[in-house]
Specification:
There is one protein chain. It contains 6 helices and 29 strands. It has 2 domains: 5-324, Methylamine Dehydrogenase, Chain H (7 Propeller); 350-447, Orthogonal Bundle (Cytochrome Bc1 Complex, Chain D, domain 2), CATH 1.10.760.10. It has helices spanning 8-22, 350-358, 395-398, 406-415, 417-420, 434-447; strands spanning 5-6, 31-35, 41-46, 52-57, 61-66, 71-77, 83-88, 94-99, 103-108, 122-126, 131-136, 142-147, 151-156, 161-167, 173-178, 184-189, 193-198, 204-210, 215-221, 226-231, 236-240, 246-250, 257-263, 268-273, 277-282, 287-293, 299-305, 310-315, 319-324. The chain starts with a strand and ends with a helix. The longest helix has 15 residues, at 8-22. It is globular, with a radius of gyration of 23 Å. The chain has 449 residues and is mainly β. The strands form 7 sheets. It has a 5-stranded mixed beta sheet with strand order 1-22-21-20-19. Strands 2-29-28-27 form a 4-stranded antiparallel beta sheet, with no helix packed on it.
């Protein structure tokens, strides 16, 4: 029986083998960064013609990028919460996005070439929980959506409606995939199973994998006879597709696997974990290609580019990070990593610390603060809620009678936005300690004037 468990010792051996080859590979740029978002980046996708890339962010936006070279093309605004997943249609005429607002939006890619016009999405539908994954069928007629409400949505894009709701997972569904012939649907989730369904009628057939921990991401290649998956306990496993047999198992690191990417023609598959570690495997003989720290913090998504042997990762930073896979040695990152605005390392006041942790991902303090999920807080004291020009507020906040001052800001973090500003986009943030709220107000009064 083919079975391998890779330990730290095995990984060191693989790395030493690779050194002899990698030193003779011509290296180019070791690391690049691309900024267009105002918050952490949670999802990535590449068009099938490799001309466009899309990134989904905590700042509620989707950015479309030109490739060759990489540069920001257009920002799409339509979600009312963090956007988690994006996917291009096979014909590259549509982009779909899904987020924490439970909504699935369709964007016409023909519209992105119109200058100075705001692109309006089509709302395909929604789930009762946030959207975790999206995938088109190979013919582009149907769409799968994985949701934290425990279901998989099957959508007919011609009719623009949901035709099946696959219910059977115990807990959130994390990942979905169509079979290559579009006859079957695969799904994985919190319950640690990869399930098999009939695409025609949504009938549940059987579990393909039963794992003790949740399966966050997976890839199935029926022709090459493997199921590859990463789990929430940090395990990477490669199993036979046609029978219950393990080909490879990596489990020395207990850090959750958050992302995967499969390059079929190039025989490479990549895994990113919650601490910034990237593992790339050769799918021909299941040997290690690379193992290194790409970012500090979670890798929510990653993409391999075959033409120039590069890797792009998305995580806590506002920017995308690009690595040349075969540059060796890479610029290894030290822990705990650089300071971020929401996790400052230097000594700051308690009020500034609370702002960094609770507010800075969504808001700036400067007059021209852009590209964040929320409006700038510049001169917020005395301002009526929902009135800052240039920001798209929810109707609930526009219709409110709140004036932002010491009392209302304190109440916002005491009772929570769901009580003080019900129906708004604001994520639920609370501060239990009175002193923390008072210190935040003192800091904001000084910093926003």
């Amino acid at each position: 029986m083919l079975f391998k468990t890779i330990s730290i010792k095995d990984i060191i051996v693989y790395k030493l083998i690779m050194i002899s080859f990698l030193f003779i590979v011509k290296s180019s740029i070791a690391i690049e960064q691309y900024t267009a978002h105002g918050g952490p980046v949670k999802g990535l996708a590449v068009s099938t013609n490799a001309q466009l890339m899309a990134s989904a962010s905590f700042d509620y936006s989707v950015v479309i990028w030109d490739l060759n070279p990489i540069k920001e093309k257009i920002t799409l605004i339509g979600h009312d919460a963090a956007v988690n997943a994006v996917s291009f249609s096979p014909a590259n005429d549509l982009l779909v996005s899904g987020g924490d607002d439970n909504n699935i939006l369709l964007w016409s890619l023909n519209e992105i070439y119109k200058v100075n016009e705001e692109i309006q999405p089509i709302k395909l539908g929604n789930h009762r929980g946030k959207i975790a994954d999206l995938e088109f069928s190979k013919n582009g007629r149907y769409l799968l959506s994985a949701s934290w409400d425990g279901s998989v949505g099957v959508w007919d894009l011609k009719e623009r409606k949901k035709i099946h709701s696959l219910v059977g997972h115990k807990g959130p569904v994390y990942s979905v995939q169509y079979s290559k012939d579009n006859k079957y649907i695969y799904s994985s989730g919190y319950d640690g199973e990869i399930k098999l369904w009939k695409a025609e009628n949504g009938e549940y057939i059987r579990p393909l994998i039963k794992n003790g921990w949740g399966i966050s991401k997976f890839e199935i290649d029926e022709q090459r006879n493997f199921i590859a998956y990463g789990s929430t306990d940090g395990q990477i496993s490669i199993n036979k597709f046609d029978k219950d047999e393990i080909i490879l198992n990596i489990k020395e690191d207990r850090v959750p696997i958050l992302s995967m990417y499969y390059l079929e023609k190039e025989n490479m598959i990549s895994f990113g974990n919650a601490k910034g570690r990237m593992i790339i495997l050769d799918t021909k003989n299941w040997t290690l290609v690379r193992d290194f720290n790409a970012v500090n913090g979670p890798i929510w998504d990653n993409i391999l580019f075959p033409d120039d042997s590069s890797l792009i990762v998305a995580g806590l930073d506002d920017f995308l990070t690009r690595w040349q896979i075969f540059d060796f040695p890479p610029k290894f990152l030290e822990r705990p990593g650089p300071a971020r605005r929401f996790n400052p390392i230097k000594e700051v006041s308690n009020g500034e610390k609370q702002f960094a942790r609770k507010c800075s991902v969504c808001h700036t303090l400067v007059e021209n603060g852009k590209k964040r999920a929320g409006p700038t807080l510049y001169k917020i004291f005395g301002r009526k809620a929902g009135t800052l020009e240039g920001y798209k507020y929810s109707k609930a906040l526009i219709d409110s009678d709140i004036i932002w001052n010491e009392e209302s800001i304190n109440r916002l973090f005491d009772e929570g936005p769901d009580k003080v500003t019900p129906g708004t986009k604001m994520p639920i943030q609370r501060m239990k300690k009175i002193q923390d709220r008072q210190d935040l107000v003192i800091f904001l009064k000084k910093a926003t004037n």
